[in-house]
Amino acid sequence: MTASIHFQATDRKAIDIGDGLIMRWSTSADAANVASLVAKAFNWMPVEGPIPDGVTPGPNEFLRAAASRLLSGKNSTMSEFDYALVEDSTVETGTNPIVACAALHRLKAYYGSVDLFFGHPELIATQAEYRNKGLVRKLLLEMIHPESEARGDALQFIHGLPHFYRQFGYEYAMCSFPPGTIRDIASIPALMKGKVEPFRLRKATVEDIPRLVSMSSKEKVSPKTELGLYYSAEYWQYTVHDIFEIAQCKYDGDRDTMIILDATTGKDVGFTVVSHVFGMQVEAFSLDQNVLLAEALYPVLRQLIAIEKERLVVKRQEEGEGSKTNTPGFPVKLALHPQHPAALLLGSRMTPGLIASAFRLYTRIPDYAKFIRMVGPELEKRLANSPMTGVTGRLRLDFYRKVEGSDHKGLEIIFRNGLIESADGWARLLQEKALEEYLEWKAQDIVPVIYGAAFAPLTFTILLMGERSLEEIQFSFAETTVKDDNSRLLLNILFPKISHHMETFYW
């Protein structure tokens, strides 16, 4: 755990919200109570197959384990002090006093060539009897969002209940990769008779972390992406070592990081990450530049499949005679970018994944102007490589009204010679005021070029994140208007549709 990732930015005094309810930040002593609340709150979420009709499921042990890991003090996404809680001080002794909770993760991210931090609210839960009292609203608006913004996070994102988080200033504007599937593992070419595998696998250790960091650059593990999360040193420390050290049940340590070795030289030439909790899924695959993917991919997949078969045999033995666990013909999933070389090489052997609600991410940008200033170097780079290089003028964006999660009714970005001179909140002027402004400029021989557009509240987030193109946003949201062709060109240059890499479920 490093101070650069986890630190407290706001005054963390407890807040009395009435009726004996106290909002406060967590400590490690809250781990069991928070885990119990989460397990009970998510009991209807199926983990290992559908819930039979007429059956009330018990606590969700998968998410109980997740909450315990988050409060372990060993997690790479947050410290044990980063769970925002509501505690009922009036409950009887021996009763769980934690009635609502929301975790706050911090993740290293990139937007093109610019490095950032993203805040990630997670594992939010409320005890059934305390729902519809606005507790999640208070946790987000009074604790999670202020803390995330104070420590410098560029945005917040979250998976979650459909439509629910829109009321807190979130819009669907990022996505993670839906995994493709190799449905028939027999389609993987077999090792020729009498031959030995040219590459071997071994589990990674903490000594491998510097090498893993260098081998997991965005260019290697998620090529063609321009927005996403890094595999940081903190990530590797957690997934390679810490999660196994704190493991308490079968839902902990559900992924393996395997170093790929040249069988002849014994030299490590790459790595792969495989998760197991929902079946075998390859999360990352990276090779040294001088290693041919066509020679390494199938030997690695064959060995990963053999390892998974062994795991399934053990699982079936542990579950006993009535086990539904099968070993032959299981699907192998690849959560790799569709343009990752491994996915391209597999070609028709893979069934591509389909974007579903589980892979769409709510995104909240609390201050558009501040975000534009943060990513300014990337926007200037895009301009420099475009037909509008050296542009001077004002881009004015109207959002119609201020809503939760937006700081102003609009945004003005001033460009001078292709550079961003300023970015500030702006509000569309009445026609009379707009005329006065124009006449004042004209009197001073300052008549700037004005580019303009209008977006329904929060939908500019979709364009800014590059999840959809300007044309697609105009089709989806009829309020979207663009002043003229030059304004359209400028917006398309600044905010093109891009690919994302948001691998977030490792915690």
Automatic annotation (TrEMBL):
Name of one Pfam family that matches: Acetyltransf_9
Highest taxon of source: Eukaryota
Protein name: Uncharacterized protein
InterPro entries, per database record: Acyl_CoA_acyltransferase (IPR016181)
